[in-house]
Amino acid sequence: MPTEGGASVRDDLVACPDCGLLHQIRQPRPGHRAECTRCGAVLYRRGRGGVHHALPVALTGAALLAVIVLNPLMGVHVQGNDREGLITSGIEALADQGMWPLALLVGALVLAAPLARVAGVVTVLACLHQGRGPADPRKVARLFAWTEKLRPWAMLDVFLLGVLVGYSRLKGFANAEFLAGGLALGGYVLVRTAMDQTLDRRAVWTSIDHVPPIDAPPPARWVACAVCQRIHGFADAPPAHCTRCASRLHRREPDSLGRTAALVSAGAILYVPANLLPVMTVVNFGQGAPSTIVHGVVELAEVGLWPLALLVFVASIAVPVLKLAGLSWFLVAARRGSGKRLHARTRLYRIIDSIGRWSNIDVFMIAILAALVQFGAVASIRADAGAVAFAGVVILTMLASHVFDPRIMWDRAEPEESPHGR
Ligand SMILES: [Zn+2]
Ligand SMILES: [Zn+2]
């Protein structure tokens, strides 16, 4: 059996991230996926192209990102005054209004994370492009592990929806138009989707470092890397770090239930001011009107934009409640060791974990409106305290669903079957 650093290493096995069941991986056809036989989680999605096909797509994404960062997204005309807004203008406007936490958050999610992720993916794919494997696999693996960890936090796709909602809300009192940066943003989101379709993550990991399959039963005791999925068998103590990507190895997320409970409680407390306090104030001809999250939904519906009103209602009001209620249910069920509705809970967990980031639409809308609508007493928009509380709810619940380990629900429901690993 191949061994690295004292642990036996297997790349022909994959553990379900949601229920922990170990599978022998069979290569699905291009564009298809392998699913967990017990809970239905996606174990492996095979990309449509090889690793080499992903590099041109990633380079196109990088070029579009440069256009987005350097060019204005939208222009606004109010009473003969013009103003254009870049991504950075939204961050600056929030900082100027004293909303530092919000400025830093928006900067991290729509600027730093997407730039770092695209730079990392391009570097990794370029290193693999020669076809002989990278000169220093450990460094490339570490870099790819970072880009994978950044993936949910790079939010230009959510930002695009925030910009569209902002554009619709401007229609009442200003002429707005999309400029080069805004059009590139639309293009980038299409390319990002294409990149997620073509980039075969397992093939990238395999190209960086791979141990060939062996004809032997799975190890009795093992731990899976949460980032690159490598299975590490061990005899006495589990290895501390993954032998491929150097991520820390844990059989289960440490203190998952306690940390999830703390984050859910903090999110639930902030949910109250997030909905009661105004998230922004719109000044129109000297008259200031504070606007809450609910008011924003009503306003979109009043001007007949029902699909957008529904979208914002779901993203900003329904999804945070679903996340807080769902995670609380999982915590109670895991603590009780309940096996009831285990499959339904696991499916709901997957939904909550994947849609949580879309609740940032309103945060991004406020950033873009605060940048664009600065015409003094004629018209101006500023962010208010409710926006900080709302962004806090979104981030705390995202962290809670990341920290919650659904495998614990399966362990506790069937404790007699899981002495180690699984
Ligand atoms: Zn599973
Ligand atoms: Zn790893």
Automatic annotation (TrEMBL):
Annotated TM spans: 54-74, 102-129, 150-167, 173-191, 261-285, 305-334, 355-379, 385-404
Coiled coil, from the record: none
UniProtKB keywords: Cell inner membrane, Cell membrane, Membrane, Transmembrane, Transmembrane helix
A GO CC term attached to the entry: plasma membrane
Location of the protein in the cell: Cell inner membrane
InterPro entries: PqiA-like, PqiA-PqiB_transport
Chief subcellular location: membrane
Keyword Cell inner membrane: yes
Pfam families the record matches: PqiA
Protein name as catalogued: Paraquat-inducible protein A
UniProt organism field: Azospirillum doebereinerae
